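Hi everyone, sorry if this is the wrong subforum. Our group has a chain we'd like a structural model of before ordering constructs, and none of us has done structure prediction before. Sequence below.
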Amino acid sequence: MNIKSIYFSVIAVLVFSVGFSQVEISQKIQDSKIAQSSENKLYFIDFWATWCGPCVYANEYLTVLQKQFSNDFYVVSLSEENSAIIEKHLKKHPSELAVFSDFNSQTMKKFGVQFLPYGVLINAYGNKLWEGSPTDFKPNDLQRFLRRSNIRGNVDDVFIVKNNNLSESSIQDYKPTKPIEIKRLNTVDNLSLEVSKEDSYVKLEGNLQEVLSYLLKTHASQLYLSKDDNASYQIYVHTSVLEHAFDEVLEELGLVAETLTKEKECLVMDFKNAQLWNTHQIDWGEDAESFLIGDTEIQANDVYLDDVKFRLSLVLDLPIKYINIKDFNTSLHDWQIHYKYYSLMEQNLLDVYGINIEKKNDEITTYHIKKAPK
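Answer:
Right subforum, don't worry. Here is the predicted structure as tokens:
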């Protein structure tokens, strides 16, 4: 090899190394049983959880896609649960895809994952090319990105194990012993809300404003807290006390809520002529998660109206107000709501459910959280 060839080879290696962005994981549970090579142009990260029913369909869809494109393309199913939980799940529900653990949640936080299932396509440099609901990623999308990608990267170079010295005891499932358990987190950052279901408990982790908004099933902008009170917490709530958890959490923290009204921009939903779906339109099974939230629509299986309102307010980043509600919030319903484009959402809600919506400034309930009087 002459000097000129060596020079350009060294430059190529340096350029690849400088541009390369590794994806951190905690453990590799299993390698892909379908992909033909560990050297690939593109990698698809399938964010999922063992409790997520809609993730099962996404996994099946990606398995078919992986079989269609067994060369140059590699799917990784990534869960933030610990390896023991994942391995136990795989014994009952085997998967042919690569399955890794992101127990320290670094990769989920890096890509800003808010809902499951969720997918991110990256190239061999670790650069994000596409993101959204995995089932929205079509074969022609993959073919287009493959044509544009020339660099290959080894799966072991793209996904790097970073266990952060987690001891075996630190990754065991914590079992709460009280209906509500609250732990203040020692962090200078106000964490974004993370919600996970663990047996008969709901685990909430994030700043207090967002935790309380989840318990109230209302938009976070309707709650007012001082900066000192809006710390980050980890809170376990037993499902049997969820209905009253807002008041109990405040009491344990020595806080009270004053309920007022304020004019704010909101989405007003009028149920005067509504005819909602029953629970026979969608069926994901008893142990499935209730929601499937994609880039354009929300689907829900057997959920109350307040839960749908809360999820819709999150994706719209807007408070929601009911009028002429009748008794719709006392029974379970199935839902399929488009939310990305307002005009389509408006027509969808009217045509499918008879719900009129209007975005306007209106009086809504607000909650002013402050220290309880001594």
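For your construct planning: The chain has three domains: 3-161, 174-253, 261-363. Confidence is low (pLDDT under 50) at residues 1-20, 165-172.
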